[in-house]
Structures are given as structure tokens and as C-alpha cells.
């Protein structure tokens, strides 16, 4: 995937993520935590989020009974390289600002790391909804995650919504002969 294509996709995902109130709360919490760790937390969170997204992607491939391609690992390495280079640019900007002024907090790299972490969290939540469609917490986000799931699976949004709704319906009990049991 090309660098600009990936950044465009990331920016689109960030726009969707920050429509959610929890994203603003989580972003503020991560910013405070990053300030407490002097800018190191976001780097670790980005790497951990990418690895968790890879593991969730493999689990989704296993659940769908499709072959987990080496493309997943290649895309994860590409993501880490792109995210790392973007964060490095912003760390250099922070270093320049710190050298010119007395302001030593890595503000811009922290914000970029938090945005990347939240975008990856969105992708992880979509994978978890595929894996656990009956989870009540994930049900709350189903309407928002449908587009993300559709892009992951390469299908239309309507098909994803139909599959998720069908997987939540309770099957009717069956009699021993294979017919549906009568309600009493």
C-alpha cells in the first residue's frame, strides 16, 4: 500500500473515530498518561495496538475459515514503518521546538501517537465485533463499525449488517427429528 493512500485511509478513519464521545475521553486520558511518562507511552501504545490488530485479524481469518495470508504481516510491518516515520517527524518537530524555547513536552508527537492508537483501536473493535457479535458492549458500536468491517472483509455494508443481525438471533429449538419444536 502506498504511503499517501495509507495516510488518507488513516485520516478518514480518524474522522469516524472522533465522532464518538469515548474517543475524546480516551484521547484526553492517553494525553495525560503520556505527559506523566514524558512522551514514551504513545510509542509503546502504537506498537501494541498494531500487534493486537494483527492478532485480531488472524483470529478473524480463522473464524471465517479463510487462509491467513502473509499479507497481514506485511501490512502490519508497513503500518509500523509508516506510523514510526510519522511519529519520528513529529518528534523532530518537538525537539526543534524544545531547542528554540523552554517548552520541553512532546506535544505534537503525543497527539499523533494518540490519534494513531485510537484509529488502531477502532480497527481492533471491528475485528472483535466479527469475533464476538453477541457482546453487549460491541453491540452499542455496531452501526458505526459496520463500514470498518465491510472494508476489512471486502463486502458491502448491507451484507455486514445482515450477517451481524442474523448472528444475534436466537435459533429456535429443534426436535430430535430435525423439525422445529413447538412452543408450549
Summarize this structure briefly:
The chain is mostly helical and 184 residues long. The protein is built from 8 helices and no strands.
Structural class by helix and strand composition? mainly alpha
Radius of gyration: 20 Å
**Chain-averaged pLDDT:** 79
Q: Biggest sheet: strands, sense, closure?
A: none
**Beta-strand percentage?**
under 5%
Description of the structure:
The protein is mainly α and 184 residues long. It has one domain (22-160). The chain contains 8 helices and no strands.
Provide the descriptors you would attach to this structure in a database record.
single chain, 184 residues, mainly alpha, 8 helices
Architecture blueprint of SSEs:
Layout: H1 3-17, H2 21-36, H3 41-63, H4 70-100, H5 107-131, H6 136-140, H7 142-153, H8 157-168
Amino acid at each position: 500500500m502506498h504511503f499517501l493512500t495509507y495516510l488518507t485511509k488513516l485520516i478518514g478513519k480518524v474522522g469516524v473515530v472522533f465522532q464518538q464521545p469515548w474517543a475524546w475521553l480516551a484521547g484526553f486520558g492517553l494525553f495525560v498518561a503520556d505527559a506523566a511518562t514524558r512522551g514514551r507511552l504513545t510509542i509503546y501504545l502504537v506498537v501494541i495496538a498494531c500487534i493486537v490488530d494483527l492478532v485480531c485479524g488472524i483470529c478473524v481469518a480463522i473464524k471465517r475459515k479463510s487462509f491467513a495470508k502473509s499479507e497481514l504481516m506485511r501490512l502490519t510491518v508497513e503500518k509500523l514503518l509508516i506510523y514510526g516515520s510519522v511519529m519520528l517527524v513529529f518528534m523532530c518537530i518537538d525537539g526543534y521546538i524544545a531547542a528554540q524555547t523552554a517548552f520541553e513536552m512532546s506535544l505534537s508527537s503525543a497527539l499523533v501517537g494518540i490519534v494513531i492508537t485510537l484509529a488502531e483501536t477502532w480497527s481492533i473493535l471491528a475485528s472483535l465485533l466479527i469475533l464476538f457479535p453477541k457482546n453487549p458492549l460491541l453491540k452499542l458500536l455496531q452501526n458505526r463499525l459496520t463500514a470498518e468491517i465491510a472494508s476489512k472483509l471486502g463486502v458491502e455494508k448491507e451484507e455486514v449488517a445482515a450477517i451481524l443481525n442474523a448472528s444475534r438471533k436466537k435459533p429456535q429449538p429443534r426436535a430430535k427429528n430435525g423439525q422445529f419444536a413447538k412452543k408450549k
